[in-house]
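Here is an idea for our session: we take a single protein and study its fold together. To get us started, please write out a protein record for me. Once you have written the record down, we can walk along the chain together.
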Amino acid sequence: MPDPRVVKLARLLVEYSTRIQKGDRVAIEAQPPAEPLVRAIYEQVLLAGGHPYVFFSPQWVEELVIKHGNDEQIARAPALRKEAYERFESRIRIYAQSNTRNLSGANLERESMLKKAVGEIVRIQMDRGAKGEFRWLTTLFPTEAYAQDADMSLAEFEDFVYQACHVDEGTPDPTAFWQGVKQSQQHIVDALRGHDRMVVRGPNCDLTLSIKGRLFLNAFGDHNMPDGEV
């Protein structure tokens, strides 16, 4: 039986964050450990009338490209992902690493080349997203590797993640919660808009910085989950 929190999160991502509608093409990008969430999202996209496409990417893909690929192979942006970013209406990306240090011994120059190639796809994402043509969302699925990095058991880390996303038993209506975050944070955005300087003071902080001409955005679960920042 699937974890009800996973199902609740999938529904939140599809109905609230990416607002999938009938006919929308949705790229679901994930690493294999996230299969339970991928399955739940796939189902929710179907129920919404969309067309889900799964892109699984094992961690060894990057390792092998960096180790054995020539310069042309490393510098080429993944064609299928690029096509999806250029044409689809939405994408949901799920980080679910089984080893957070798998590239520790990689050649840094070649790794930089690979990141530059992927950056081409990210630019498409940001450009189409800013125009309202592409609804993108990034989230995380709890794994043993992430739990170890956090000095937690897997069960503890799962609780931490799902509570942060507000899809646990303590939040009966996650959508209403994140809509409330949007409303509360808008007061901060409005207060900062049009000012030239910000001063932050606390017990161990005395910081003054320029905010002249800056644009402040309200982040409330539409691009990242969990979220809640300006």
Notes: The chain has a mean pLDDT of 95. Strands lie at 25-30, 51-56, 90-95, 135-140, 197-202, 205-210, 224-225.
